[in-house]
What we know:
6 strands
Amino acid sequence: MKYSAGIIPFRINEINNELEFFVGHPGGYGWQNKNYWAFLKGNVENNENWQETAIREFKEESGLDMNDCESQMLIPLGTVLQNPSKTAIAFALHYPNIDPSKCHSNFIEDGITPEIDKYRWINYDNIKNLTHKTHMVFYEKIKKMVEEKY
């Protein structure tokens, strides 16, 4: 079984007071014509724990080091079986000041193609149709958490 861990930054949009999630679009030929968006995550390597993997992958795939984040507290969201051979692990992070235009990703093995080629903030209603169905449990947990807090 492979394990993939990542971070789902979230915010309340100040203009419309709507919950939004920061997501990326996978780079590469197979993804260029697909309207698919997902949280930034990657495979657990060596002796990393899930939180270490999530932080490393977030930095690699966004170029952000989280130093400008109001709170660097990661909120565990649990795990889902993404497919028969991969388990996805997610952490939520309140990180409202991410500017998608300033993000950049590491490259896939060809050294030319970024792992993530686009970034955006997306609301709950739209993410439902644009991401991996098994990941919705993570977005639903964040939505519930935010509704209970506000």
